[in-house]
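Deliverable D2.4 — example input (structure tokens):
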């Protein structure tokens, strides 16, 4: 984030966040996922700039400013939470489109989105499939249970169940071999 952004008011920062989010959305529609991710990342930097003025955002980002700073209005706090969820969630979506997704980072971004919107279906789905690809099938299944049920959620849930069943069979076979003499 450039240093001039720290001199912006919270309203101006929110406008910048909306602007970068829209640029990201446009790039995503064009399937330019790197450009979209960069725009969402820039929006997130401005979101972090809000944290010194908003205790809720400070808790989310781990950043705090002087206690004497003016707080944002409740409407601005709500908008910043929605933008936070959207930008982290959209960044996770872009990262899943990479040739070699970094699933741990996708999960981190989904967790940030879920901190402000715990029942966000897209974040739950993206986190669930990331856990699946990391081989954490039970955790993935638990997360996917909270996502809105659709064909892709059912498909990954079924894949998780099949992999868990396979792991159980392998463990049973291993234990059976250990205790036979």
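Example output (designed residues):
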């Amino acid at each position: 984030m450039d240093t001039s952004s720290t001199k912006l008011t919270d309203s101006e920062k929110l406008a910048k966040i909306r602007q970068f989010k829209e640029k990201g959305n446009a790039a995503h529609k064009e399937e330019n996922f790197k450009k979209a991710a960069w725009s969402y990342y820039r929006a997130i930097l401005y979101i972090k700039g809000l944290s010194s003025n908003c205790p809720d955002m400070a808790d989310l980002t781990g950043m705090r400013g002087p206690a004497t700073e003016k707080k944002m209005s409740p409407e601005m706090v709500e908008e910043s939470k929605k933008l936070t969820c959207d930008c982290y969630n959209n960044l996770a979506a872009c990262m899943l489109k990479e040739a070699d997704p970094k699933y741990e980072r996708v999960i981190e971004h989904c967790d940030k989105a879920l901190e402000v919107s715990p029942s966000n279906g897209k974040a739950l789905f993206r986190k669930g499939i990331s856990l699946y690809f990391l081989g954490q099938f039970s955790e993935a299944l638990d997360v996917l249970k909270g996502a809105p049920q659709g064909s892709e959620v059912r498909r990954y849930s079924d894949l998780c169940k099949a992999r868990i069943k396979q792991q159980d069979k392998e463990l049973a076979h291993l234990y059976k071999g250990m205790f036979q003499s």
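The chain has eight helices and no strands.
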